[in-house]
Amino acid sequence: MAITDTATDMPSDTTPAAATDTGATGLALPAPAGLVGVLGTGDHKTLGRLWIAAAGVFGMGSLGVLAWYLVEASQDPGAQTGRAPLNLTLAVLGLVLGFVVPGFIGLATAIVPLQVGAATIAFPRAAAAALWAWLSSAALLVVSYLPALDGGVGGGHVDGSVLTYLALAGLVGSLLLGVVCVLTTIVTLRPAGMTLDRIPLFSWSMLVAGGLWLLTLPMLGANAAFISVDLKYGTPALFGARDLQWKQLSWMMLAPQVFAYAIPVLGILGDVVTTFAKRRLPQRGVLLAAIGAFGAVSFGVYVQPAFDRFAFRQWAYIGQIVILVLPLLGVLGSVATALRKGVSAVTGPLVLGLVSLLLLVLGALTAIPFVIGPLGLQATDGDLMESVPALRAATEGPPVYTWGVFGIVAVAAAAGLVAGLFHWAAKTTGRQLPDSVAKVLAPVFLLGALAWGVPLLVLGFADRSDGIVDAASVLFIISLVGVLLVLAAVAVPVALTVISRAAVIGGAERADADPWATGATLEWLTDSPPAPGNFSEPPDVISPEPLLDANDGGAS
Amino acid sequence: MAVPQLPASHAPIGEAPPAPPARPRVVAVGTALASVGVLVFFGGALAVYAQIRAAALEERATWIPEGATLPLQQSNVIILALLMGSVTVQWAVDAIKRNDRPQAYLALGLTELMGFATLNMAAYLYSVMQLDASSGPMAVMTYAITGAHVGVLVAAMIYLALMAFRALGGQFTGRQHDGVSAAAMFWHVQVVAFAFIWYTIYITK
């Protein structure tokens, strides 16, 4: 089978005995089982699980590295090493390209084909190639940061740094390949009757987010190409200069681009509300429009402080930041309307999704002061950098205030991802995860986001008060506590997911097809976990909530 | 009296067979999405190139390093070869649509030939430019952008070759030509990308 083929009978590890591969000869061959089966699989459920598990591990690692940086930043200036900024860049790259984006791609790889009634993901071999290439690139990124190689963004050794940028290009390329597979599934593999306005909200949000990632993340590849060519063959002067490397990549963590990574959160919350609303979702069109609008205002690749010293003063940029919160308020209003009409249950994923949305709103609101020039947030205070040397290279480009916004949005994305893990656990692992744990995790994420982000926001005002500079150590320690809380909140669902999957493989009882008993979209029509081919026959769709059609017989 | 049954081959005409279900254009959509990524890469890179060049010219700094040239002859030949490749690859798509396999193979082969001609000319262009990569940001960006285009061109050639082999295996017909069409689309995209490179780097210098 070629990499471009989209077969409908990809073997699944869920029923190894039944899975067969007819191959080129037409003879039925047993699908390989065990590790070989996993390594060679094109089954979207297995690939999704692998994406999620690996992203969880990289997420925890990235948070650990960030915690390490904050420990160092909270110490006396003399105790801070020159490697501290390297840790910060590794943490940011790891959180965005190793955790949040691949986590959503993993969830989408597992769930989107089920939501749109497809038998498989488009280009299953390419989806597998994307996973393994991403995993290899992520490992390469970590290796390049090892002290022995002295690489990294702004690292001391040319070859080590070139390896970092090779890994970065690999990460971007493989993630975009995964995105192409998901988006192609949404666009082409829908059953008749499922028009684009009828696709489930998570699939819609992935369509918006994936489109935006395709329109922005290749720029990271271009940045990496410039820097690595300059490092390897140049002086290096502009691109490869150690202090300027991070500045060129920093646009990826600045508002509004940082919000682009969290777009799927809105779709996850929308689908959770769809599941638990007692009737068809009111104002669904508003939700679709709001998610699309949020995608449009999250486009931030043009904000390049490394090449445009007036990047933060463009009127388009200022306007974009100011209106960023409006689509989120639209989502909030639609969700509130649905909740006011009553829900069948207040579940953990619902609470987590709401926390995630509130954090996104908070992130959008905290981004606004940054564009108000007189507040002086667009540069890090000189006295602060004097007392915290670890900030110097790290805040070239992204001032310390933006680290606070980044923290809040990153936690919003993580909380939304975890909400999705709990909501669709039956489909990804075969069993439900304990709902009470999700309810406990929600306040942990909220507290973690506030503790992580707010102290860094306060540090942004350091030029207004010497007291803030004096309290920098305490603020970094509070931020450290927040990061550790988030680390714990990420570790628990990842561990539960792995344990749950292991239990299913060990023969534990599987969940029902619709364990919530209120599912409205197609994924709840399939077994938990779905059998190969997902659906015994192409589902009929005449409304956005096909499972409700049998009850009320009405299409919307 | 029993009505004689006509054999299937003599069934009355007039009732058309039901139309086959519409096939999702999976390969075409996937290729289009990947093409967006490619165009964003070159668009972003060229935007940075133009921005830095504008800043340098504003400061009256030298843009093209002393001793280096950006000759037009070779870059013109490259764009012409690529455009001719666009014509031949579209010829291949048309031939496949008409089930004219010999012409399709000929056209695909000619397109590959145009690709090799482009690679050859790009190598020659690098040798005559006398552009030292360590001579400044202009050289770094020129090599990064044109080098990336060479990479995309090679990818397009491999994609076309794969589709050509599948065509040789009889996988594509007049009703099922998505693979060749998609590969042709990717070829056109890299030609468009080079057109922007040609204008930004070689024409406006």
Task: Provide the fold topology.
The complex is a heterodimer of chains A (556) and B (205).
Chain A: E1 20-21, E2 29-30, H1 34-39, H2 44-73, H3 84-115, H4 124-144, H5 158-188, H6 201-216, H7 218-233, H8 242-249, H9 257-260, H10 263-276, H11 284-297, H12 315-323, H13 325-340, H14 348-367, H15 382-387, H16 400-423, H17 425-428, H18 435-459, H19 466-470, H20 472-505, H21 546-552
Antiparallel strand pairs in A: 1-2
Helix pairs in contact in A: 2-3, 2-4, 2-20, 3-4, 3-5, 3-16, 4-5, 5-6, 5-7, 6-10, 6-11, 10-11, 10-13, 10-14, 10-16, 11-13, 13-14, 14-16, 14-18, 16-18, 16-20, 18-20
Chain B: H1 26-58, H2 72-97, H3 101-129, H4 137-168, H5 178-203
Helix pairs in contact in B: 1-4, 1-5, 2-3, 2-5, 3-4, 4-5
Describe the structure.
The complex is a heterodimer of chains A (556) and B (205). By secondary structure, chain A is mainly α. Helix content of chain A is 62%, strand content 1%. Chain A has 21 helices and two strands. In chain A, strands 1-2 form a two-stranded antiparallel ribbon. In chain A, a hairpin with a 7-residue loop joins strand 1 and strand 2. Chain A starts with 19 loop residues before the first strand and ends with a helix. In chain A, 61% of the residues are buried. About 4% of the residues of chain A have low confidence. By secondary structure, chain B is mostly helical. Chain B contains five helices and no strands. In chain B, helix 1 packs antiparallel against helix 4 and helix 4 packs antiparallel against helix 5. Chain B is elongated and about 75 Å long. The N and C termini of chain B lie far apart (89 Å). The model of chain B has no long low-confidence stretch (mean pLDDT 89). Chains A and B meet through helix 5, helix 6 and helix 7 of A and helix 1 and helix 4 of B.
